[in-house]
Amino acid sequence: MNNDQRSLVSGLDLSLFVILELLGLTAIFGNASLIAVLVKFNYLNKPSFILLLSLAFADILHGIVTIFYFYPPIILKGHYLSLQWMKIFNTIDWIAWAITLTHISAVCLDRLAAIIFYGRYTLLVSLTKIRYYSIFCWIFFIGQNIILLLSNVCCMIIPLQNKEYYTFGYQRDNNFLNQTNIYIYTYTPLELSTIIIISISNPIILIQLYKRWKRKCALQHASVLLLEMSMKLGAQQSHIELTRKSMQKASRQQQRIVLQIVTVVAMFSSYMLIYYLSYYIFPFNYKWVAVLHSVSYSITHISNPVIYFTCNKEIRKQLFTLCIELWQYFLSCNRGLLFERYQFPLHTIERTQQIRRLSSVESQKRMQQSKTTTTTATTTTTTVDIMIKLSTNIITEMDTLINFDEYEKQQIEEKQNEQEY
């Protein structure tokens, strides 16, 4: 990035880039944490959590694409990737987008079936059916997007220069990507069907939840009145208090379910509304529309982990226990590595210093004895042990050479003395 490009980067560019990148990182780590909790604590034996698992994987892919492809041009003020890498990122993003659309629709229909059919839900929706559905969606859309990529018939989504790279979309009136936009014909029916399913199913779900909640409250209130009328508010006061607490707990649970549904639907619907209004119906050129589109797109990827970790007390507690277990495992691994790396007997240094003071024959004997004793020990060989052994071997060899020279000198002197005598 040269000086002219640096001068073009404003405070809005930097702040928007930081916010969007943080949202992308939150999407990656939040959904990865959600996947870890679902796998660790055996949630995958329920059909709805299989759908949630696929949504979490798709949101991770979206986060990777936004971090490395969509938002860096905000401060770089230009495309920094080659055309081939742009195609790869577009393929990943379109696969994740297809999984998001199909599985959000499936989640809405799953909740609708669970509320309406209730007792017959397990007959209609089974774990095997949902698993096959999820696997089919992944295989089908991965194969479809690879075929479109190899056929070179895809018009890619890129960060838009005419909107100062604040958002992304199809490049219009430019020959940079001279390709057919087949994605509009492929994904628009899927997007519209998802919007229709969400628009129809979620109001029915909310109405049914409200009716069930009112019915349950009425039954519990009637049971409390019967207890108050039949008992004389003495020893049975505790039963009435327990009934009231159960009523409050049930109402809070229903409120959490409603909050989850409303939040997910509001996030996804707001993004789709902004997306269709800004790109298909009323093409705006305002900065705030581009910023709103990018922010809403990034927020949709963190909706599931935020909702489940804030509204579901059990999953939040399991996340904390998982973090504690990972931290303890990390500490134990570090302790083991440090113990294995620096654990060597200090008396080996003293032993080598004592060996240096001995003669060559005795030093070799002591070295052999030390080798036999060290082989019987169970301590692992480290780099420090190897260096000590090498140094002792070199020292003993030098000692033997020096002793051999002294021995030869003594022999020569003895021969000379014998000749003189």
TrEMBL record:
Any one GO CC term of the record: plasma membrane
Residues that span the membrane, as ranges: 16-39, 51-74, 94-118, 130-162, 182-206, 257-282, 288-309
Entry keywords, A to Z: Cell membrane, G-protein coupled receptor, Glycoprotein, Membrane, Receptor, Transducer, Transmembrane, Transmembrane helix
UniProt key word Zinc: no
PROSITE patterns with a match to the protein in the record: G_PROTEIN_RECEP_F1_2
Sample GO molecular function, one term: G protein-coupled receptor activity
Compartments where located: Cell membrane
CDD domains: 7tm_classA_rhodopsin-like
UniProt cross-references to Gene3D superfamilies, sorted A to Z: Rhodopsin 7-helix transmembrane proteins
Lineage start: Eukaryota, Metazoa, Ecdysozoa, Nematoda, Chromadorea
Record protein name field: G_PROTEIN_RECEP_F1_2 domain-containing protein
Domain G-protein coupled receptors family 1 profile positions: 30-308
Protein topology in the membrane: Multi-pass membrane protein
Record-linked InterPro entries: 7TM_GPCR_serpentine_rcpt_Srx, GPCR_Rhodpsn, GPCR_Rhodpsn_7TM
